[in-house]
């Protein structure tokens, strides 16, 4: 038996705190009975509804997915473009992406049906490192990229300090490969950070989330995470 708000969060209804508010507001029923107490516990066979809509309890699942470029980080798209869930033909659980990657960005994204886990990894107060490798226009020196380590202003707000490393430069093609490690998740953040220092991104790939990486995966493929990997991600999220 688990607390109702915890089960709701696991099922992706809302964060645990928002689920608590739904209960307090009288919007949740269990087996047809309206529940307003936060200590109420439920089991796997209990029928939970929020505003009359059933909440389906599933065993939590977790996957590492290598998202190709040209794929939307969503479970559906009104323009009929390919989405991340299109690649999970053998998975019956109602999974969704943890955070997002831009349409033209490839790399690691975590897929799950555990809303509480997803919230832990994406909440702004948590600082899970995300490692990107960018192909950029230009051949910058370390000094020219140094502002990234101090934080640069994008969309009127300064970014948190990041770590960077120039992996290679090609003066003939006027391009470089740079690794950037950040822990925020703002919209188009990596591209905007490089633009802010004068080196636009040509191509972008996310290599790691925390210690989780793409080793063993090819583009468009996925694998299930081990319990140890899930636990490690939660430890990193909680600092």
UniProtKB/TrEMBL annotation:
InterPro entries according to UniProt: PsdUridine_s_RsuA/RluB/E/F_cat, PsdUridine_synth_cat_dom_sf, PsdUridine_synth_RsuA/RluA, PsdUridine_synth_RsuA/RluB/E/F, PsdUridine_synth_RsuA/RluB_CS, RsuA_PseudoU_synthase, S4_RNA-bd, S4_RNA-bd_sf
One family name in Pfam for this protein: S4
Keywords for the protein's UniProt record, in alphabetical order: Isomerase, RNA-binding
Primary enzyme class: isomerase
EC number: 5.4.99.-
Entry-linked PROSITE patterns: PSI_RSU (PS01149), S4 (PS50889)
Residues of the RNA-binding S4 domain: 2-60
NCBIfam families: pseudouridine synthase
Family: Belongs to the pseudouridine synthase RsuA family.
Entry protein name: Pseudouridine synthase
């Amino acid at each position: 038996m688990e607390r109702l708000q915890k089960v709701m969060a696991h099922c992706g209804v809302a964060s645990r705190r928002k689920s608590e508010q739904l209960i307090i507001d009288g919007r949740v029923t269990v087996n047809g009975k309206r529940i307003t107490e936060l200590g109420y516990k439920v089991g796997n066979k209990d029928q939970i509804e929020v505003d009359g809509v059933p909440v389906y309890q599933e065993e939590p699942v977790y996957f590492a997915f290598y998202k190709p470029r040209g794929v939307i980080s969503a479970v559906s798209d009104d323009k009929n473009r390919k989405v991340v869930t299109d690649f999970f033909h053998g998975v019956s659980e109602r999974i969704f992406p943890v955070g997002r990657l831009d349409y033209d960005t490839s790399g690691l994204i975590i897929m799950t049906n555990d809303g509480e886990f997803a919230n832990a990894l994406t909440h702004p107060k948590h600082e899970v490192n995300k490692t990107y490798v960018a192909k950029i226009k230009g051949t910058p020196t370390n000094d020219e990229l140094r502002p990234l380590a101090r934080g640069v202003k994008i969309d009127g707000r300064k970014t948190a300090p990041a770590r960077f490393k120039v992996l290679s430069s090609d003066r003939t093609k006027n391009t470089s490969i740079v690794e950037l490690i950040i822990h925020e998740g703002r919209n188009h953040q990596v591209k905007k950070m490089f633009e802010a220092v004068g080196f636009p991104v040509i191509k972008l790939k996310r290599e790691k989330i925390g210690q989780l990486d793409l080793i063993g995966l090819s583009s468009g493929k996925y694998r299930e995470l081990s319990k140890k990997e899930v636990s490690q991600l939660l430890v990193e999220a909680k600092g």
